[in-house]
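Chain A, query sequence.
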Amino acid sequence: MQLIKIAKAIKYMLGTGLLTFCLSGCADADEDITGTMMNSTKPKGNTQREQELPIDIDVEKITIELSGVEEEYKLLYVSDLHMIILDEEVLEEHKTAVEQRVDFFSAPTGVNPIEIWEGLPQYLDSYHADAVLFGGDMLDYASTSNIQCLQEGLNNLTTPYLYVRADHDYGNHYTGLDASYIKDLHGKMDGALEISLLEFPDFCIVGIDNNTSNITPEGLARFREIYALGKPIILLTHVPIASQFDDSLAEQSKKAWQDRALIWGSGYYYEPDANTKEFLDMIYREDSLVKEILSGHLHFSWDGPISNQAYGHVFAPAINGSIGLITVKGTE
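Chain A, predicted structure.
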């Protein structure tokens, strides 16, 4: 992996502790961002797996029970790795900021995220899972080198995967690259569809791409088509969806993100337009087929009910050395 070898040669000092970064909502780049990782467990008997990586991996385990599912499935979840290769595409006025971001994202594990990515596909394959779900912000910003590095790793992954991109994966804030060029690079990887589908015999996994933006009319129509299949749905989104039961997710986000509830819902940071409101109503309805929403974005872990029908789980970020292990099985 030539690009990764180049990246490994770029050495940065770690842990300034004095830097401010925009991890979500890049208009607020002067704000100090903090987050925590919670509810993770270390896998046991995983020595062979962990030898492939420069860090120990924390595995956050959840179980999803769905009516009508006859077999047991194993899924993996990864998001928020924020990989960076600093090269000539980064605008001169942003190079110092990008160097600082490399330090920041390396600090939780002491290892550059690029080095984690080098061994992560092989590590994920060792689980022999039914699918890997990439929940967005695997890249810190869009550049040719960053996207190609991501592509090289995905090419080495033999497990089927679904990848929903987010604002950082598409972001040109440090490079100024044309948005259509970025979209084309991502599209060559896997199509980069707004609505992606992994269909199993008894349920569906539906991914929502570019989830920091409102869903388009075309995306909503495609979601309706999948919904009409009549199967239980596990929804993969980068940004979590507000709970109708309590404000615990919103309050935890406010504590971590300078009083901002970085979730979808009326009155929250991501305010839905008419199309997105209809999409959310399909999730909240009493007879909804959406049973679980898997998200990242907030850089901490949370689990709780979203509606009477659906639960939500927010996974801790991969920059903390965390992945998710999801068991899907039938109801007892």
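The first strand starts at residue 58 and ends at 66. The first helix runs from residue 2 to 8.
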